[in-house]
Write a structure and sequence with these properties.
Layout: H1 2-12, H2 15-78, H3 84-87, H4 91-96, H5 99-129, H6 133-159, H7 170-201, H8 208-255, E1 260-266, E2 278-281, E3 291-302, E4 305-310, E5 321-324, E6 329-335
Antiparallel strand pairs: 1-3, 1-6, 2-3, 3-4, 4-5
C-alpha cells in the first residue's frame, strides 16, 4: 500500500539518521583528546623550561660559593704561611666554608633592593601626582653630584690607592653606588621632563619615539646592571678575604690560651725549631718512637696530613709544621687543667 509504505520506510531506515548524528560526537571526542594531549605537552614543555631557568641561577650560585669559599680559606691559612694547594681541599670543603662569606653580602644586597624598590615606588607616586616637584628637582641635582664624586673615587682606586685612609670596602662600593646614583638620577630627570611635556605632546608626535625610548632604557639598564654586578663581585671578594684574615687573627690569639695541646711522637728526629716547642729524646722501650715534641697545637687535618703550629705562634717568628698521618708518627691530644 502506498499509504502504509511511507511510514514503513521511515521506521525501517533509522540507521542513516543515527550515523549522521554520531559523527559530531566522535569528532568532539577526538578533538578533546587532541587538546588534552597538546595541554599535557604544553605543561611538560613549561615544566622543562622552568627547570632550565632555575638551574642557571643554582649553577651560578654554586660557582660563586666555591670562589668565595676559596678566597676565605686562602686568606685564613696564608696568614699561617700555608698554601691552599697543600691542604688538598675538595669542592665540597670550599662550599661548606663559604657560608659566612656569602651570608652578609647576599643579605645586604637583598635588603638594599627591598629598600630601593620601596623608595622608587614612593618617588614614582610623587611624580605621577605632581607633588614635591621642587624637592625632586633639587634631589636629582644632589644625586648627580654625589654619584659623580663616588664614581670618581671608585674609578681612581681601581688604578692606585686613594690619598686618604678609607674602609676596605669603600673603593668597590663607591664605584657601584656611584653608578647606581648617577643612572637613577638621570632616569628621574628624564622621567620628570616627560611627565611635564606629556600634555603638550599628546596632540602630535611620532609613534616610533616610545619604542626607541624603551630600547634605550633596556640597554641602559642592562649595562648599568652589569657594571653594578662587577662592583658587587669585587666587594664580596674583598669581604671574603677580610673575613678569612679576621678568622686567622682570632685563631692565632686562641693558640696560647687553648687548653687542648698536641704531643707529637716520632720515630725519627724532626728537628723542629719553633718558639715554645720542646724536643725530648725517649728510651726505646719497644714502641719504636724515639722523640717527643711538646708545645704544639693542631691547626687542621686535611688530605692525610696534620698541620701543626707552636703554641707561642706569632706572625714574625711562627712556623707551620706539616706531618704526614702514617705509622712514622703518633699524635696525642692533651687537655691542660687550669
Amino acid at each position: 500500500m502506498p499509504g502504509g509504505g511511507q511510514p514503513g520506510s521511515e521506521q525501517n531506515n533509522p540507521e542513516p539518521v543515527l550515523k549522521r548524528a554520531s559523527k559530531p560526537a566522535r569528532t568532539s571526542q577526538s578533538s578533546s583528546a587532541a587538546e588534552s594531549l597538546n595541554d599535557s605537552r604544553g605543561i611538560s614543555r613549561v615544566a622543562f623550561e622552568a627547570l632550565g631557568i632555575g638551574a642557571a641561577p643554582v649553577t651560578l650560585l654554586g660557582a660563586l660559593a666555591f670562589y668565595f669559599g676559596w678566597v676565605r680559606t686562602n686568606s685564613l691559612y696564608s696568614y699561617f704561611g700555608i698554601d691552599t694547594s697543600v691542604l688538598g681541599f675538595s669542592t665540597q670543603d670550599y662550599l661548606m666554608r663559604s657560608a659566612d662569606a656569602l651570608f652578609v653580602p647576599f643579605g645586604t644586597v637583598l635588603l638594599a633592593l627591598l629598600i630601593s624598590l620601596r623608595v622608587h615606588w614612593l618617588i614614582r607616586r610623587w611624580v605621577d601626582q605632581g607633588r614635591f616637584h621642587q624637592l625632586l628637582h633639587w634631589g636629582v641635582r644632589v644625586g648627580l653630584a654625589t654619584g659623580a664624586v663616588l664614581f670618581t673615587f671608585g674609578l681612581v682606586s681601581v688604578f692606585r690607592p686613594l690619598p686618604f685612609r678609607v674602609h676596605f670596602l669603600f673603593p668597590s662600593l663607591s664605584l657601584g653606588i656611584g653608578i647606581v646614583i648617577l643612572a637613577y638620577a638621570s632616569y628621574l630627570h628624564g622621567w620628570n621632563e616627560d611627565s611635564e611635556d606629556k600634555p603638550s605632546s599628546s596632540h602630535g608626535g611620532s609613534q616610533d619615539k616610545p619604542s626607541s625610548s624603551h630600547q634605550r632604557f633596556v640597554v641602559s639598564v642592562t649595562l648599568v646592571s652589569m657594571l653594578v654586578v662587577l662592583c658587587l663581585y669585587w666587594a664580596a671578594s674583598d669581604y671574603a678575604r677580610a673575613l678569612g684574615r679576621g678568622r686567622a687573627h682570632q685563631l692565632a690569639r686562641q693558640l696560647a690560651t687553648e687548653p687542648t695541646g698536641a704531643v707529637l711522637y716520632s720515630k725519627e728526629q724532626l728537628h723542629i725549631q719553633a718558639p715554645g716547642v720542646q724536643e725530648i729524646q725517649l728510651d726505646n722501650g719497644g714502641s719504636g718512637y724515639r722523640f717527643r715534641y711538646e708545645g704544639l697545637r693542631l691547626l687542621i687535618r686535611s688530605s692525610g696530613k696534620y698541620f701543626l703550629v707552636p703554641a707561642l705562634w706569632s706572625p714574625t717568628v711562627g712556623v707551620a709544621i706539616l706531618v704526614p698521618d702514617n705509622e712514622s708518627v703518633r699524635l696525642e691530644f692533651t687537655r691542660e687543667v687550669r
